[in-house]
Amino acid sequence: MAESPIPVTLPKGTPHGFIPVYTYRFPLDQLLRPYLEQLFPAALLSVTELRERGEQALPQMPLFIDSGGFLALNTDVTIQEEGGLGVLVQPNGQTISPRSIYDEQRWAVRPNFPVTAFTLDFPAPACAAAAERERRGALTISNARWTLSQIRPFRVFASLQPGLSPAEVLDLQPDGLALGGLAPYSADRERIRHEVRAMRALMPPSLPLHVFGLGHPQSVRAALEAGATTVDSSAPQRLAADGRSWTGEAVTDPNSAERLALALSNLLTVSRAEVPLHLHPLWRGVR
C-alpha cells in the first residue's frame, strides 16, 4: 500500500520543482543561461562558483546560493573547528567558513531577484566512522544556528543531513530546511523517499524543504512525491556534455550546438519529473 502524502502548505510564490545548477566554468552553462532565466523558478550557485565568476554577471533570476559544503565529501578536504564553528579547508589553503559564506551570499542580493541562502553543512562519506559523523553533525548544527542568528537580507535555509533533528534549529525560525547527503544514493529511490519523508514529518508544513544533488528524473520525482519542495543538480548538463540525454539519445563527440540541445532536453525532462520517465514521449531507453 502506498504511503499517504504528508500535508505541505507553502506560502504563495514559493519556488517548486527542479532547480538547475549554474556555473561560470563551463561554456555549456553560458549557452544555457537565457533558457534557464526563462524556464526555471530559480538557479543554484555555489559560493565556490561566486568566487570564480570574476566580472561575469549573475543570472537575471532568483538564486539559491549553496555554501559549498558538498566539498566535505572530498578526501583531500579537512574540517576544522574555529570558535565553535566548522570551517572547511581546501588543499590550496582556501577556507569556507560560515562568516565568509554569509558575506558572499549577502553580496549577491539584488532588487527584484530574491536570494535563498544555505548554511554550511558537512556531509560525511559512506566510509566515515560514527565519531566523525557525529562531529560533522554537531558542527553543521552550530553553523546553522550562527547563520540564523545574523541579520537576514535573504531567506536562510538550514542545511541538515539525514539523522539530524530539525528541532536543533527550528527555534531560530529558518525560512526553510535543506537535506544533503543523498547524492551518493541517487539510484536508491526508496531511501530518498524515506529520508525526505522522515525530515518532512519533523518540520512545519509551511516550511519549504530543499534536497541537494538529485538530478535523475526518477530521483527528483521520488523526492518531490515524498514532500520536498525543490531539488537541484548539475546532472542534466553533465550528461549532455557527455553526449547523452535521459530520453535515450546519444551523440558521439558532440559539438556545442548538440550539447546545448541535449542539455535542454535533459532540463525539460527533469522539470517534468512528475511524469514517469518511461511515459515521456521521447523515451527510448536510458543508456
TrEMBL record:
Where on the tree of life does the source sit, at the highest rank?
Bacteria
Q: Which residues form the tRNA-guanine(15) transglycosylase-like domain?
A: 63-249
Q: Record's SUPFAM superfamilies?
A: tRNA-guanine transglycosylase
Q: Which residues form a coiled coil?
A: none
**InterPro entries, alphabetized:** TGT-like_sf (IPR036511), tRNA_ribo_trans-like (IPR002616)
Entry protein name: tRNA-guanine(15) transglycosylase-like domain-containing protein
Q: Cite the Pfam families for this sequence.
A: TGT
Organism of provenance: Deinococcus xinjiangensis
